[in-house]
Amino acid sequence: MEALIVIVVILAVALAGLRIANQYERAVVFRLGRYQSTRGPGLYWIIPVIEWQQTVDLRTVTAAVEEQETITKDNVPIKVTAVVWYRIVDPRSATIEVRRIDNAVIQVAQTTLRTGIGQHTLDDVLKEQEAVAHLIQQKIDVVTEPWGAKVERVQMKNIEIPESMQRAMAQEAEALREKRARLIKAQAELEAAEQLRAASQIIMQNPAGLELRRMQMITEVGAEQNTMTIVMMPSEFVSAAAAIGALVPKAGG
What we know:
The protein is an alpha+beta fold. It has three domains: 55 residues, no CATH class; 101 residues, 2-Layer Sandwich (Tetrahydropterin Synthase, Chain A); 39 residues.
């Protein structure tokens, strides 16, 4: 009977110490308050009463960084919101070295975001968001590395600038567009002038070409309906026509 009781107690203790960790979890086991080991995934056993555990999730965490007010390097006040992706790579450090690792990472991200933005101009923040975010990520990762957390990515979600600066940027963009339009128009006029110059040189080499072009122009103008066309004929044509007219009566007599 006593042996049966002992067996039952042993089985109860053995079953009470069984634990299961999912594939994405690790169990940090303490024995009488001292770190013992990191266990999992799968089935493992701890000594009841003497050992206890704290489970750590190794999956990537997406954390939103609330809106931060900061000033850029060129003294422009802006408001920035961001998103941080991180995960636990060292369950032991994440449990022992820091309390509430999630909150700690967010706080570091907030302060680093403000100081990081302050080292860049507004143009850099707007045009080089990926590069600026990457630098901020590296700075956050340096702080969180002793805690067993790896910052995988930082992305600036929204950048809000003052309305006065928005109007100034809109005026600047409009001026740049107008400048490009004028340059394009000037370039087109220059190319057209060069083509006309080349055409005039060809026509001057062959005067008959000029007359052919004149006749082509008359044909194009005459194709329009309800138009009156006045043609200025060269003096040579007028003289030739007068000579022919003077000969016609004599031939009839």
